[in-house]
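QUALITY CONTROL LOG
STEP: pairwise intake check
CHECKER ROLE: data steward
CRITERIA: each record must contain a sequence immediately followed by its structure tokens, with no blank fields

ENTRY 1 OF 2
RESULT FIELD BELOW
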Amino acid sequence: MLRRIAFVGLVLFALASCVQSPVDQSHDLVLGAIYPLSGPQAPGGKAELAGVQAALKVAQTNLRLQVIDATTPDAASAAVDKLVRDYHVPAILGTYGSTLSVAASARAEELKTVYWETGAVADPITAQRHYVFRTVATGSALGRMAVNFTHDVLVPQMNVSSPRAAVVRVNDVYGRSVGGGEEALARSMGIQVVDVIEYDPRAYDAEVIAARLAAARADFLWDVSYLDDGIAIWQSLLQNHVSFKAAIGTSSAFCMAEFSRRVGYGSVGVYAADKPDADISPAAMSPAGRALLAKAQTAFGGSMDIPAVAGFVGGWTLFHDVLPKLSGSFTSESIRAAALKVDVPTGDSINGGGVRFGAAGSLDEGQNTRAAAVIGQWQGVGVMKILYPAAYATG
């Protein structure tokens, strides 16, 4: 009888050992992180990850990030599988790039693992998802910001009676999210969209795009490009003397310091719609937001650009406003439930925004409804000033 009891006990112990248990809070928690740390998107991916790591320092938590470099959608999806299979992570942060995030977040949703998007803006990332959360603005919101600025500020200042606009956009989920938002809102505001030019960022002719824009004779250009192709198109416009009353680019190109550095004086005067960097008016932040920004910059080790700020806001929200609220153990379900209760007032984030995710079952479930977006302008080589909204303005 004693031998039978011992045998049954061993069997039960073996079975229990095969069951994946949630990570207990008394031990180091491992979370996944997927960013492009090589390839063309590496500068932004590295900066965004550095922002997340700065948030980890400020939060002083004992969790650890298992980081994987992913430069293609297939690699991003495979990274999710590896993190869940080999490290049993309950949540994954990422991804900077929209095409990467669409693939990675879809796979995480299938595996019922929380995906925490810190930078990518394409609208479908959070559409009809239950385990995906995003702390930055959507692409369509950035597109609408460009159109609102054109309608509210530029058209009256320039006294344009029948404004005409042209849209240039990459032919992927990022370009169509931002560009689609621009098209729809412009038409409702009485701005005529005279041409929409879609192109493949891996195979395009900048001269052909410039010629088509010259023929369109638009007053305003709204451009949704990546860095290398955005620079090539803008340089072609300059070389062919194609002019506009104003040109507004969006994230991933026109807002980046590399754009101004490589284009030089040809960048001066160009506008950009994007998430804020750390150089916004202090008036946009509450006292708590300003105090947190000082800690963030110390942990980061200097000035924080747009991806770094986005990474910090995303990481801080998870490390400070979600995980400490859990009791007992960390699971995807408990993280998801706590995230839906986050309520950070506007101004308390270091970018002037706040955090409140769309409620479960709503169309914007998992999307931060208090995410910040701004319009900046290159007013010198490497000198970007925020102009809109007024609370954020530095120039």
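ENTRY 2 OF 2
RESULT FIELD BELOW
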Amino acid sequence: MQLGNTRTGYGLVAQSLHWIVAGLVVYQFVLAQRAEAASLFQQLGILGRHKSIGLTIFALAALRLAWNLASSRPDPPEHEPRYRLILARATHAVLYALIFLLPVSGWIMSAAANTPVSYFGWFTLPNPVSPRQEWVEPLQAVHGALFATLTAIVIIHSAAALYHHFVLKDDVLRHMLPGLRRRKS
């Protein structure tokens, strides 16, 4: 498999970044659910990991965005209607926006709660805002709403990929799956 993208598929770099970020987003959900059910002491460790993973997602998404801007993209299917191309671009833009906004909202929420954001204990981010306890609950609601929106967009994104694969029988999903050959025309 090649590293870079081509007109017929994404390369190893784009595919790896896509699936690593996707897996980490799922892991974030698991960590958040575990934190809600944990004791206060356990929550500190779980939320510390949650924050570090959030920063990792932010960095990988920035790397992926830079890679995508510098690389070619696979051609869309020949007879793809313009409205679906526009919807696909809009969906990807919203996915990127949410993937960047979630860590930022979590960082601001942590600062408002006066709980530092440390990256796996290696370094601590400066607080972007002064502690403001009255902001914590609204920021938790924003963070939760952003994640709920991300979940909805991921479901739409996944359903569209499956629709292309099983109904339209084109190569859209195969572009992002490592090791799958294109269908014969």
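INTAKE CHECK: passed for both entries
DESCRIPTIVE NOTE, ENTRY 2: The helical segments are 12-37, 40-70, 82-112, 133-168.
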